[in-house]
Amino acid sequence: MAHADSAPPITPADLGLKTSTPPRGLALLAMAILVGFVVLQGRTLWREWGDLQRDMSDVRRTAVIGYPNIHPNPSYARKPPDWFHDEGDSTLLWSGWKGKSHQWFRVGRGEVEQARISQPIGRDVIQAIDYPIVEKDGGAIWKRIPGEAQVVGFEVAGTLAVYPLHVLGKVAVVNDLIGEQPVLVTFNPVRPLGTPVHIFEPIVDGHRITMGMSGYFLDRRPVLYDRGTESLWVQNDEGALESIAGRYRGSRLRSMGKLAPVTWGDWRWQHPRSRLLIGADRSKLLPST
User: Are residues 130 and 38 in the same domain?
Assistant: First the structure.
C-alpha cells in the first residue's frame, strides 16, 4: 500500500479547472506603465533635487561672509541745477558736497560731452579700496566664502592674488600694492555679467597714482579720477584706461591683463596658498596721489 505522502500532487486539471497565461500585450502594457511611473517619479525627484541644490546654493551665496568696509558711502546732498557747466576755458562737473560748499571736477572746456555722461551720484559714493585687507593661505573669511562664488586671480611679483567678484562689484576699484608692485584693479558694476576684470599698472611719468570713483558714468562705463590731479579716466573700446580730461588727458595706463571669473572652489583647490582680498581699511586717510 502506497504511503499518503507519496501520492502525486493535485493539479488544477484534476479539479476540472482551466489555466491560462496573461496575454503578451497585457504584460507589455503593465511593464510600460511601471516603467513610465518610474521615469515620471525619477524626473520629479531629479527636479526636486535640483531645486534643493539651487536653494542651498542661494543660502550659501547670500550668507553673511563679513567682508569689512565694502559698502557704499551714500550722500544725501542734492546736485545743483548747473551740475555741468562751463566757466571760461573750463568745464565744471559737480562732485559732491564738502563742508559748506559744493565741490567740482574742473577740466578743459569741451573735454567731456554732457550728452554722453550720466547724472552724478557723488564722488566716492562707490568707495574704491585704497588700503586693502587681505588673508594669506587661509583665514576666517577664506573659509566662509562658498565654493561656487566667483573670483578672479592672477600672479604678480611671485604672489598669487585673488579678488572676490562680490567685493569688486561693491567697490569697482582696488588700489593694491603687491610686494613692491602697484596694481590697479577695475570692474564695471553697471555691467557685471560677462564683463572682465582689468588689471593696470598705475604709473604715470614714473609716479604711482591711485584712483577713485568720480560718481559719473560715460557710455555706461565708470569714470575714475586720480587723486593727485583729479583728471578723469575711462576705459576705452580697446580696454585701455585712458585719461579723457584734465592734466593727464591722453595718458594711458599699461594693461597687465584682463581676467575672467572662476569659482572660488576651483581656485582654492588649485592655489591653496594665495593672497585673498577681503575688504578695506577705512581708518587711514585717502592717498593724495
Answer: no
